[in-house]
Specification:
It is built from six helices and five strands, in the order αβββαββαααα. It folds into three domains: 58 residues; 53 residues, OB fold (Dihydrolipoamide Acetyltransferase, E2P) (Beta Barrel), CATH 2.40.50.140; 63 residues, no CATH class. It has a five-stranded antiparallel sheet with strand order 3-2-1-4-5, with no helix packed on it. With 202 residues, the chain is an alpha+beta fold. The longest helix is centred in the N-terminal third of the chain and has 51 residues.
């Protein structure tokens, strides 16, 4: 059995000398190597392009799958019992007893916000809901400002202390005279007059 080899067009004439044949073959080889390198580069570019579109396809498929899924509902964990987790749905206040994995149960506590599906099974836990306005006013640490750091507004400092501190420290004084203590104080004035410093010092 013999192998069949396609006829190759030789780059020289039959009557060419041996040296001419060698030079012609070397020239043809150089051209073929250059073409092969070019085709290899194009193949690499095509593979990279294919990978990019494959990733895009997978991402779009995932997004499409998410859009087709039923929406999740928000609920709050009410109680952890031996029989399961008691949750209350937001909106309709419907309570339900549902089961979770041991791993998820260890991470759950009463008042945790969770996402549940149509069967009221807990899918995932949600971050604590905090009003943006409340976060802005939240004090992470006690301000290191004292009344001694503020100068030029001694009269205003005394008024604030009488209005804010006295009802907390000596509520009996207001009871004796039969008046309700003030619920707060409003500081107003142009910028740079010590309003913020005074509020931090209280």
């Amino acid at each position: 059995m013999t192998d069949t080899v396609d006829k190759v067009d030789l780059p020289y004439d039959d009557d060419a000398s041996q040296q001419e044949k060698i030079e012609a073959l070397e020239e043809r080889l150089e051209v073929l190597e250059s073409q092969n390198e070019e085709m290899r580069d194009k193949l690499l570019d095509a593979n990279a392009e294919n990978n990019k579109y494959q990733q895009k396809l997978e991402r779009l498929t995932h997004e499409n799958k998410k859009l087709k899924q039923s929406p999740l509902f928000v609920a709050t964990v009410q109680e952890l019992t031996d029989d399961g987790i008691i949750i209350k749905q937001h909106g309709n206040n419907q309570e339900a007893l549902t089961e979770v994995t041991e791993e998820m149960r260890e991470d759950l506590e009463p008042d945790d916000r969770v996402a549940v599906n149509n069967s009221l099974s807990i899918v995932k836990t949600l971050e604590d809901e905090t009003d943006v306005r409340a976060r802005v006013m939240q004090v992470d640490r006690s301000p290191e400002v004292t009344y001694g750091d503020i100068g030029g507004i001694n009269e205003q400092i005394e008024e604030v202390r009488e209005t804010v501190e006295m009802p907390l420290k000596s509520p009996e004084m207001f009871e004796e005279v039969g008046i309700d203590p003030p619920s707060g104080v409003l500081l107003h004035g142009p910028p740079g007059t010590g309003k913020t410093m005074l509020a931090k010092a209280v």
